[in-house]
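Subject: Protein record for review, amino acid sequence with backbone structure tokens
Concerning: The relation between a protein's sequence and the shape of its backbone.
How to read it: Take the token row as a discrete description of the fold.
Enclosed: The protein record, placed directly beneath this head.
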Amino acid sequence: MVGKKITVFKLLIGLMLTLLTLTMFVPIVNIFARALSHPDRVNQLKGYDLLPKGFSLINFQVVLGNPIVGKALMNSLFITIVGTCLCIFFTTIAAYVLTRKNLVGKTPIMIFLIIIMIFEPGIVQEYMVMKDLHLLDSLWSMVLYRMINVYYLIIMMRFLEEIPESLLEAARIDGAGHMTLFIRIVMPLARIPLLTIGMFYAIAKWNEFFKSSIFLSSRENTVLQVLLRQFVVERDTSTLVGAANLLKNNNIAQLDFSSLKAATIVVAMIPILMLYPIILKYYTSGVMDGGVKE
């Protein structure tokens, strides 16, 4: 077996990618270290330290001990999970319809969708639509918001166009209708693009805070990203450190603001970070499907 030749160009690319990875890895690990450090020693941490100074979970007790944070976390999970599932389903079924050769008016529909993609509506128009639909201050406003991304729709269309028409025609001869074709044939064959755009949709739903702060006005329906912005950016400690936490944690006055902020960021990061290994597991297991023809 002849080994692969390592060139100077490959070494430079590897070095650049390693440095790029470190620029993202070191700050994240430092945030975890700051959140887990003991309040009396957190001031000893520097920007490049990767290990906590001492160990304490008091910051997470304060963050998760607030019922508002727990409610916001559940709201964010509901919006992300339900919204992502609906986005994937409607994006895929729209791509299936738009890739049918006998679809009447396909060109005008695509032109209309591209115009929508280029000229997005303003916040006032979106707010008025939500108001007319009676979805203001409802979690469904964020679930249904931008259910179909035109860019992801076009990506899905390109994948579905690669499915052999003879395969679909054979299923039609056996009596399969459009829903049977879509559920039994198209969806299983489109697993990789489904996982890809599903990850994009999930990240967008989870990280959306601007529209959430506009559409969701009550504290009962707030989401985690809005609380994170209020505490980290606006430094609104009264929202996170409430009376309940003051009673439960006698040493809360000794907490460091930066470590408490780091713990809040960690709580907001963990759910979406857990998504990546799950997606990559199924992505790598199916990336070679259909690659070898007998």
